[in-house]
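anyone seen this seq b4? input:
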Amino acid sequence: MDNRQHQSAGTDAGEALTWFRYGPDCGRSYELQKGSEYAGMAVKHCGHPTANWPYYIEAAWHHRMILAPNGHGFRLLAEAKQAAVEIYHRHQRGEEQCTFTF
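predicted toks r here
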């Protein structure tokens, strides 16, 4: 069964940003795409079914796991996706920092 799915994430320079979902239910990953291309951002689940802070971000240019400001992973997928899009936009503007607030 194909469990991949796209979901809107806004726009960048007039081109749609979408989330591409793939993988098993527990441990699923979400890639940010600009048009039909990988935008270099991914939100991943740690794979543990009862984790309290299961989501973290990977940026292709950062080469490290990006956690929430509290030092843990993100509790909610929506928060991780919001942070990933914010980091993506900051990177596009030339801001290399990977800090953010909610």
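Helices lie at 77-92. The first helix runs from residue 77 to 92. kinda curious what u guys think
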